[in-house]
């Protein structure tokens, strides 16, 4: 089991968790695992729909625009929060900081899942790339996957911007 200590063994300083009242940074490994799960879901969803005689859903331009808008909002929130907390060292209300932190974490998780699902959609149509219909589906799903990666990145930046800076006046 990773992350824990063996019974009877004291944790080292670098193994201890965050101080009480703090939140661990989002694990990049977990995000990759969620994206891989999303790929499996996307491929399975397309195959199940087509096996049932249906037509798999296509990614629309509106989806791309909505995802891009969300990514832009998250990047703007991350920049604003970074400027306030890290650069100008302003204090913000704790409830607002927690809200921004949770928005960042949730965006990273949902973005990772959607990255995988859209990548799974794109992979499902790769074998039929010769005709224009599947080619457009691969391009749109691939673009949605890339924009979803931007949502993940913006969410992680927002989460990072919420960190409380070290106080240079405090000495241990």
Tell me what the structure shows.
This protein has 172 residues and is an all-alpha fold. The protein has four helices and no strands. α1 crosses α3, α2 packs parallel to α4 and α3 runs antiparallel to α4. The two termini are 32 Å apart. The N terminus is likely disordered.
- Quick one: overall form? elongated
Proportion of β residues? under 5%
SS element count, helices = 4
Structural class: mainly alpha
Q: What distance separates the N and C termini?
A: 32 Å
Number of strands: 0
What is the helix fraction of residues, given as a range? 55-70%
Summarize this structure as a short list of keywords or feature phrases.
172 residues, mainly alpha, elongated
Write the layout of secondary structure elements.
Blueprint: H1 28-51, H2 61-87, H3 94-125, H4 132-161
Helix pairs in contact: 1-3, 2-4, 3-4
Summed up:
The chain is an all-alpha fold.
């Amino acid at each position: 089991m990773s992350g824990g200590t063996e019974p009877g063994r004291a944790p080292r300083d670098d193994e201890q968790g965050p101080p009480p009242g703090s939140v661990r940074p989002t694990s990049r490994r977990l995000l990759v695992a969620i994206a891989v799960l999303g790929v499996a879901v996307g491929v399975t969803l397309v195959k199940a729909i087509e096996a049932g005689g249906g037509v798999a859903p296509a990614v629309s331009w509106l989806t791309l625009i909505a995802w891009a808008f969300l990514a832009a909002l998250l990047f703007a929130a991350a920049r604003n929060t970074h400027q306030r907390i890290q650069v100008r060292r302003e204090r913000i209300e704790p409830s607002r900081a927690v809200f921004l932190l949770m928005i960042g974490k949730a965006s990273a998780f949902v973005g990772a899942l959607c990255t995988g699902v859209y990548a799974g959609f794109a992979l499902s149509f790769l074998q039929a790339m010769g005709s224009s219909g599947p080619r457009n589906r691969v391009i749109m799903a691939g673009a949605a996957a890339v924009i979803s990666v931007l949502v993940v990145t913006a969410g992680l930046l927002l989460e990072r911007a919420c960190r409380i800076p070290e106080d240079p006046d405090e000495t241990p």
